[in-house]
Design goal:
The chain has two helices and seven strands, in the order βαββββαββ. The protein is mainly beta. The chain has one domain: Nuclear Transport Factor 2, Chain: A, CATH 3.10.450. It is globular.
């Protein structure tokens, strides 16, 4: 996976996809992905989402981002994250981010430690 921003040590930092790293990252209790928009063809999927997760000090981090996932042989072979990592630690409330989604105020899918679920019936606040 490649992060399309200036990292601490490298421009466009990368990591290899491995099961241990994925288990560690995605097992954070309270981590949630709100999928706002998604489009796909046979080889590439674009996902616009809001990633949210709790910090150890009680703050909550939220990041609007776009993922580009390449899957030419029915599995993800590589991908890119497009975001501004400074927003993660800016203390944004969910309604601040949702304001950018003019016309759509609820996600199409919500993914968290409990699995995948349809969005709530009412707008998120």
């Amino acid at each position: 996976m490649t992060w399309m921003y200036q990292g601490r040590e490298h421009l466009f930092p990368t990591s290899e996809l491995n099961r241990h790293e994925m288990d560690e990252i995605y097992s954070i209790r309270g981590r949630e992905y709100q999928i706002m928009n998604m489009v796909s063809d046979d080889a590439v999927t674009f996902v616009e989402l809001i990633e949210s997760y709790p910090a150890e000090d009680g703050r909550f981090f939220r990041t609007p981002l776009v993922l580009v996932l390449e899957h030419p042989k029915d599995h993800v072979s590589t991908g890119r994250h497009y975001c501004d990592p400074r927003l993660s630690h800016a203390g944004l409330e969910l309604q601040n981010i949702l304001a950018a989604f003019r016309g759509r105020r609820t996600p199409t899918i919500v993914i968290n430690h409990e699995g995948i679920s349809p969005p709530p019936k009412t707008a998120l606040s």
